């Protein structure tokens, strides 16, 4: 999820260091550790993920694409549920793609999965996909509408988009806006989607339980790794990152932030 994982972890290694020190952990390393117990990088429980995929995948032999796939969890779950489905994923992080390949081999679905190490915003492919997924990755495209434009370019006729993005449930504080960026209220978010030529055919608003579970998992997994590896040179930084994230969540944006996942079809060509 872009608002949590990248927003705070990006600050974690900002302090200066001398040449003799080990390089600080990067955002991808922190995100990997933080998502160890919550492989879907968004505030969604397993039932919500299953229903979103059920509404997004039109038939058993569909082709799906995940723009910003990370460790490929959306694709792996879709492949497991649909034995004739074929999937492709795009991400810039080789370590995440390596985890996806390993998991696909372990689950016996690697023959139906193709992964590309590329910038998802620049990925070019034939528009043959029945479902394009981009959940929590709008920051990589420059916002919601550019994400939808990228997805549209890959859709086969009649295809669907599964997109997930944050919104403000209530008026945010200045600190929350600084942390999470230019989000909209839910009605405004839906207005943008509809005006851009899309019709929502299914949706899910993350519950308070899902939002809290995601944040506790993010901070808890990262903290546990740090405490389990006290001699690792990254341990102290990981613990600080988790503490900073937890503090910002509880004090700045917990009461204002929401997350919407939408299955969309094109209203117009």
TrEMBL record:
Methyltransferase type domain sequence ranges: 65-161
Record's keyword annotation contains NADP? no
Matching SUPFAM superfamilies? S-adenosyl-L-methionine-dependent methyltransferases
Please indicate if the UniProt record lists Transferase as a keyword: yes
Which segments carry the region annotation Disordered? 1-24
Provide a GO biological process annotation: methylation
Q: Which PANTHER family match?
A: METHYLTRANSFERASE, SAM-DEPENDENT METHYLTRANSFERASE
Give the protein name, as stated in the record: SAM-dependent methyltransferase
């Amino acid at each position: 999820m872009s608002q949590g994982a990248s927003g705070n972890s990006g600050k974690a290694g900002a302090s200066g260091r001398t040449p003799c020190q080990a390089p600080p952990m990067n955002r991808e390393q922190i995100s990997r550790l933080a998502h160890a117990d919550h492989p879907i990088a968004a505030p969604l429980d397993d039932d919500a993920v299953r229903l979103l995929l059920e509404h997004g995948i039109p038939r058993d032999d569909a082709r799906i694409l995940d723009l910003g796939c990370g460790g490929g969890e959306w694709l792996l779950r879709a492949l497991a549920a649909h034995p004739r489905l074929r999937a492709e994923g795009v991400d810039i992080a080789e370590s995440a793609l390596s985890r996806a390949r390993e998991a696909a081999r372990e689950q016996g679905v690697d023959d139906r999965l193709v992964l590309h190490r590329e910038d998802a915003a620049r990925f070019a492919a034939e528009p043959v996909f029945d479902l394009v997924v981009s959940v929590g990755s709008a920051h990589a495209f420059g916002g919601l509408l550019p994400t939808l434009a990228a997805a549209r370019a890959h859709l086969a006729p009649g295809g669907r988009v599964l997109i997930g993005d944050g919104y403000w449930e209530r008026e945010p504080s200045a600190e929350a806006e600084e942390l999470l960026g230019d989000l909209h209220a839910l009605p405004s978010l839906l207005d943008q989607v509809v005006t851009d030529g899309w019709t929502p055919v299914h949706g899910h608003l993350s519950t308070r339980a899902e939002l809290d579970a995601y944040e506790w998992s993010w901070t808890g997994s990262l903290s546990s790794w740090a405490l389990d590896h006290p001699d690792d040179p990254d341990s102290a930084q990981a613990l600080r990152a988790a503490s900073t994230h937890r503090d910002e969540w509880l004090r700045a944006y917990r009461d204002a932030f929401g997350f919407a996942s939408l299955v969309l079809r094109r209203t117009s060509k």
